[in-house]
Amino acid sequence: MLGSVALVTGGGSGLGLATVERFIQQGAKVVIADLTSSKGAVVAQKFGDSAVFTPTDVQSEQDVQTAVNLAKEKFGRLDTTVNCAGTAIAFKTYNFNKKLAHNLEDFTRVQMINTVGTFNVIRLAVSLMGDNEPNKDGQRGVIVNTASVAAFEGQIGQAAYAASKAAVVGMTLPIARDLSTQGIRVVTIAPGLFDTPMLAQLPEKVRKFLAANIPFPQRLGDPAEFAHLVQSIVENPLLNGEVIRLDGALRMQM
Hints:
Blueprint: E1 5-9, H1 14-25, E2 29-34, H2 40-46, E3 51-55, H3 61-75, E4 80-83, E5 94-95, E6 100-101, H4 104-129, E7 141-146, H5 150-153, H6 159-179, E8 184-191, H7 197-200, H8 204-212, H9 223-235, E9 242-246
Helix pairs in contact: 1-9, 3-4, 4-6
C-alpha cells in the first residue's frame, strides 16, 4: 500500500476513519470524502500532507466527481476506493398500535445514501482508476464496499436498512464482472456489530446485551479490525466479486 492513493467515503468517523488511519499508517495517501458536518476536515488536518478532505454527499454526482478530481490533482492517481458512507433507520413496515405506516421518504433516503450513493461513487471513481498502469496481474484498482449482516438477517424494523445493504451485496458480483476487463476488483465487507458512533449512542446495558449475542470473540468489533480486512482485500489479488462477513459468527435474531 506504500505510495498508493485511496478515496474513503464516510472517512470522518467510525469504520471509515479507522480505514483512513490504517491506510496512512501503511504509507498511502487518502482523500477523505464525508459530509460538511463531519469531522473529516479535522481528521485530514491531523495527517498533514497525507490526507485531504472534501465535503461530499455520496448522492451528489458533482460532489463525488469533485472528490475523484481532487485525488488526481492532489496525489496524481487513485488506486483504492472504500465506501463507508451510510445511514440507518429503525421503523416497522406498519405500526399497528399507532396506525402508522413506514414513512416512504425515510425508506427512499436510506436506499439513496446506502445503495445509490455506493454505486455513484464506484461508477465515477473507476474512471480515474482505469487510467492506472496495470501491475503484473493486470490490476489497476480495488473497490471495497460496506454492506451489513442485516443484508442477510435483517431484524424487526430494519426493512429499509436491510434492503439497502442487500442491494450492495447483490451488485458486488455484476460490478466485479463489469470492471474485470480493466483489472479493477470489487469486494464487499458485511460487518456485524461494531463499536461505532452509531452504537455508542446506545445505553451501556444495551451494548453489553448486543455483545453477549456474539459467539466469539464476545464483544463488539473494533473499527480497526474492519480496516485490517480492507487492507487484506487490497493486498490479496485473488479476492474479487465476493462478500465477506466480519461478525464473530454472529447470526442476527428477530
